[in-house]
Specification:
The protein has 236 residues and is of the alpha+beta class. It folds into two domains: 7-86; 89-206, no CATH class. 48% of the residues lie in helices and 29% in strands.
Length: 236
Amino acid sequence: MKCYFHCDTNMYRRRLKHFIEYTAPPLFFIAVILTITLLLSFRNLIHQEILLHAVIIVCASIFAFTLLIRIILEVAARKTAVHARYTYIEIGLKDIIISLYAGSFAHFGERTVLRTLYVIPLKEFEEAGIVNRKKLIIKGNIKEYTGNDQRLGYFFKDGTFEFKEAYYESQGFKEFNELVLPALFGRVETLKQIIDSFNAAKARFNALPPPKPYVFREMEFVKIRKIRKKLQGKNL
């Protein structure tokens, strides 16, 4: 059973590759045809004084395409970096945690990252499946938290999920019974692996021994104090 799944950041590289494959060849051929046309009509264009305008149009088209590719590369690199860090699925001993990058904004010169956190106790997890061959659907008791990444920090104590801020233990969330995740975690094979891990974690949780009943135990110094009082009462 795998307990951690990263966002499929390769999808941004694939989208960039497909964009270049579909747009670069036609633009390249158009640029070549225009260049050949300029060379063949060089004398006529000079006499009509439109050669400079034609050259400017060709160069501007090439520059615009290059600039567009540059912008798309930066966007893809940015999305790859943030989703690689903030978008993941983690399966704990008693809970399923899903984190999604939800954007960012500048605040007093510092960038604040937002993310959405879904917490699903395995005790209340029902089932998971695939819709549209790309998205994961999960059913159960689901809590959704959205906020500052630093405030949504959490840890596991004896296998139990806990927030670092006590505020989120009792409020600051929405509750619902069905969640459809965006297509961020890979293809069908990976989604099936995630579902198998959910089911294995559910079976593991069901096999856990029941919690031991709470037994009140007095502190040792309290016992000693009571014994002393009893002895003092007898002496009197």
